[in-house]
Write a structure and sequence with these properties.
Blueprint (H helix, E strand, L loop, with lengths): L14 H31 L3 H37 L3 H37 L3 H16 L1 H16 L4 H23 L9 H24 L15 H33 L3 H37 L3 H28 L1 H6 L5 H14 L3 H16 L4 H12 L1 H9 L6 H25 L8
Helix pairs in contact: 1-6, 1-9, 2-3, 2-4, 2-5, 2-8, 2-9, 3-4, 3-5, 3-8, 4-7, 5-7, 6-7, 8-14, 8-15, 9-10, 9-12, 9-13, 10-12, 10-13, 12-16, 13-16, 14-16, 15-16
């Protein structure tokens, strides 16, 4: 891993070129992670519906870990990109140092709580005993690696906010590749290793994330950033408060999204373990669309932040809407794939005909909301780049909460069955994407101070 030498000025370079310069490494990173998620589901799926359901059910709590880490990383992107745009490297360095140290402390606290409460989470979801037993072990190992999740997220945010999206890609390329290699070795006991099943899948992630964290530390020591980091273990609570103030709305939205999915999972569980497995397949497949959008969201966030720092609000706005147009084209194509090939996509993961049939319905319904999901994700990033994270929270919170009664109403009183759950997800995505686009168009985010 070497220092990235090619840099462009994101406040003067052609906007479309800047978007792709930033986005393609992030999208590639997201696809690597998606490839891992698909590979993980593929190998675990070979163990049967119970094992797959255990891992899928854990995924909602893992999303909470990511959401909590976003408190820090969202603040980092907003503040560091603003300082880089203003050519204030000393302040960008100081913010980054504080964020990294705070990541360590907060991750250790979360790990302790998560390990102790893992079983209660599965009891709340109402999963079958076999699913619960496997899932608790998987989730506890995941919580033990929370410090790696947090640090990789924070390190990646620092590099991306400075305009370097290729270094996080290189780290992800190594760690995800290692994870994919370790998965079947530890799950099935290849090469003389013990056969660990779903526990092996969790350990593969723990090991690869730990090595990824170490690589980032090495890169920082080699001064791979535009500015120097000293990593002094001393907290500046006023700076931490500024970071948290920006990041909390995004984190609240993410955590609530996860909590809502716990209840969605519970409603889905009423239709059997096969329905939970179908939900997991749909989520894995939709991650292709979601994470692609997230990659472009990071590009928009960095461009908005740096251009606001450079006192160019109109260029910041143009950057956001140009990114939206690109994502609409991509998600439109993905929707066509969901509509045209749902059976082929579903059968890749599992051979159970009942699970495949449920997953086909999920993909066809999801196809209707992909463009709107793209709108929501990119504009959330655009708001975050401006440090104005409250509007996305105001849209996301009620939009996510309403999924619970809507799913129940459609599934049971209105008799739509498990498809009612899928429709609750799609309909609310359409509303959220539309609402956020209208709010961003008002332009109040241009005047946000951080």
């Amino acid at each position: 891993m070497v220092r990235q030498k090619k840099q462009i000025d994101l406040t003067t370079e052609k906007i479309t070129r800047s978007i792709f310069f930033l986005a393609w490494p992030v999208v590639a990173t997201m696809f690597l992670q998606t490839t891992f998620a698909i590979a993980d589901a593929f190998w675990v799926g070979k163990l049967g519906a119970v094992s797959l359901a255990a891992v899928i059910s854990s995924a909602f709590m893992i999303w909470i870990i990511y959401s909590l880490s976003s408190v820090i990383s969202t603040g980092v992107v907003a503040m560091v990109s603003r300082f880089v745009g203003a050519k204030d490297e000393a302040s960008a360095s100081y913010v980054s140092e504080q964020a990294i140290f705070f990541s360590v402390l907060s991750a250790l606290a979360l790990s302790s709580v998560g390990i102790l409460t893992a079983k209660q989470v599965f009891l709340l979801m109402g999963t079958e005993p076999e699913v619960t037993n496997l899932g608790v072990i998987y989730l506890r190992i995941t919580y033990a690696g929370t410090i790696f999740f947090f640090l990789i997220d924070t390190f990646g945010a620092v590099f991306r906010a400075s305009g370097d999206t290729k270094t996080p890609l290189r780290v992800a390329l190594f760690t995800v590749g290692l994870n994919i290699i370790l998965d079947p070795i530890l799950i099935f006991g290849w090469l003389g290793f013990p056969e660990l099943g779903t526990t092996g899948a969790a350990l593969a992630t723990f090991i690869s994330q730990g090595i990824g964290t170490f690589i980032f530390f090495v890169l920082l020591k080699r001064k791979s950033l535009k500015f120097e980091l000293r990593l002094k273990p001393k907290l500046d609570f006023s700076m931490i408060f500024r970071l948290i103030k920006i990041g909390i709305p995004t984190s609240v939205s993410g955590i609530l999204f996860s909590v809502v999915y716990l209840f969605i999972n519970k409603i889905t569980a009423s239709f059997g373990t096969e329905a939970i497995a179908a939900l997991g397949i749909g989520n894995r497949v939709e991650s292709v669309s979601y994470l692609t959008c997230f990659g472009f969201s990071i590009a928009s966030s960095t461009l908005v932040g740096q251009n606001l720092g450079a006192k160019k609000p109109q260029r910041a706005e143009k950057s956001a809407w140009t990114t939206v147009r690109i994502v609409v084209l991509i998600t439109g194509f993905i929707s066509l794939m969901f509509l045209a090939f749902p059976k082929y996509i579903s059968s890749f993961f599992i051979s159970d005909p009942e699970v495949i049939n449920m997953a086909i319905g999920y993909l066809r319904i999801l196809a209707l909301s992909q463009v709107f999901m793209g709108l929501e994700i990119v504009l959330e990033g655009s708001f975050a780049g401006a440090g104005n994270t409250v509007p996305p929270m105001i849209v996301s919170v009620p939009g996510s909460v309403i999924r619970i009664p809507l799913a129940y109403l459609l599934a049971f009183p209105l008799g739509a069955g498990v498809n009612g759950v899928w429709w609750s997800i799609t309909l609310t995505s359409i509303v959220k994407g539309t609402a956020l686009a209208l709010w961003f168009k008002k332009g109040g985010w241009k005047k946000k101070k951080i």
